[in-house]
TrEMBL record:
It comes from Pseudoalteromonas holothuriae. This is Diguanylate phosphodiesterase. It comes from the Bacteria. Residues 24-276 form the EAL domain. The chain holds residues 456 to 735 of 735 of the full protein.
């Protein structure tokens, strides 16, 4: 009886796994097709200075329309694109979009930085730093307005090579931010060797403020940033309570639905044209 039961469990497990794999392969095929047909979009979420509430930058975020005005979350398809190797080409396209966006912003007198997320496989391509430099030169974008967001997973993958690549890019003038900081369980020692200018505090440490101890972690990251001479930016700020507290803790910048959601390129242009910092 028990053997029978185990069999059934194993059988069910296998078919679940197969189903999941088939679903993933289908998604990857569709993603590749939609990317080739230029159906992907890049949206932009404003980043503000806590003190002045001026918009100082924006983050480029991939959007994959699935029809009827709906979108498949990058949280789902970016990991798939990474595994399938697709993220290298998609990531290059996002960088080019970001360059075009930066130029459009500069053209209306709103020169703010545009941050781009970079995945592990992109760093593995030979001469990644050179390809970024070439792209910026081709688009004639001032490197100081382009920021690369790397996660701890990128850093820990091959710290020596990554440090070298990031240093080369930083020397060129590109900014570097550590994304989702504190979620990667990596040793803090890499902070001493890594070239970066901003720490992004993950939403995980923001979302339960003030109802849990996560505020203590946010405060720790802010003070770490201050001691290292780096800026800190809080991600995913949704309430005034969170915002007030983070500001009081000395956080430099903020990005979150409370201030602005990610929006298409044209909407960002309108947003910036009409935007007036309110008194905090
Ligand atoms: P991330 O880089 O940490 O991006 C921040 C995420 O937080 C975005 O989710 C953004 O929409 C969301 N967010 C910002 N403020 C709030 C808020 O107040 N409340 C809530 N609930 N969420 C907020 P999104 O756009 O779904 O992207 C998810 C992740 O997908 C990104 O996390 C990033 O890891 C990845 N991703 C997105 N675009 C790209 C890309 O072009 N390349 C790569 N490699 N990864 C990307
Ligand atoms: Mg990011
Ligand atoms: Mg993040
Ligand atoms: Mg995140």
């Amino acid at each position: 009886n028990q053997a029978k039961q185990e069999n059934r469990v194993v059988g069910r497990y296998t078919s679940d796994l197969e189903e999941k794999m088939a679903w993933k392969l289908g998604l990857i095929r569709q993603l590749r097709q939609d990317f080739e047909h230029k159906r992907l979009e890049v949206w932009y979420q404003p980043q503000l200075c806590f003190k002045t509430l001026e918009v100082v930058g924006c983050e480029a975020l991939l959007r994959w329309p699935s029809g009827n005005g709906r979108y498949i979350s990058p949280g789902i398809f970016v990991p798939l694109a990474e595994n399938a190797g697709l993220i290298v080409d998609i990531g290059q396209w996002v960088l080019e979009q970001a360059c075009e966006q930066q130029k459009k912003l500069a053209a209306i007198g709103k020169s703010i930085s545009v941050a781009v997320n970079v995945s592990v496989p992109q760093f593995k391509v030979a001469n990644y730093a050179q390809s970024v430099k070439d792209t910026l030169l081709e688009y004639q974008v001032d490197p100081k307005f382009i920021e690369l967001e790397v996660t701890e997973s990128v850093v820990m993958d091959e710290i020596g090579a990554v440090v070298e690549t990031l240093r080369e890019l930083q020397e060129f003038g590109v900014e570097v931010a550590i994304d989702d900081f504190g979620t990667g369980f990596s040793s803090l020692s890499y902070l001493q060797t890594l070239p970066f200018s901003r720490l992004k505090i993950d939403r995980a440490f923001i979302k339960d403020i003030p109802h849990s101890d996560s505020g203590a972690i946010a405060e720790l990251v802010i003070s770490l940033g201050r001691h290292l001479g780096r800026k800190t930016i809080a991600e995913g700020v949704e309430t005034k309570e969170q915002s007030d507290l983070l500001k009081k803790m000395g956080c430099d910048e903020v990005q979150g639905f409370m201030y602005a959601k990610p929006m298409p390129s044209e909407a960002l242009m309108m947003f910036l044209k009409n935007y007036k910092p309110k008194v905090n």
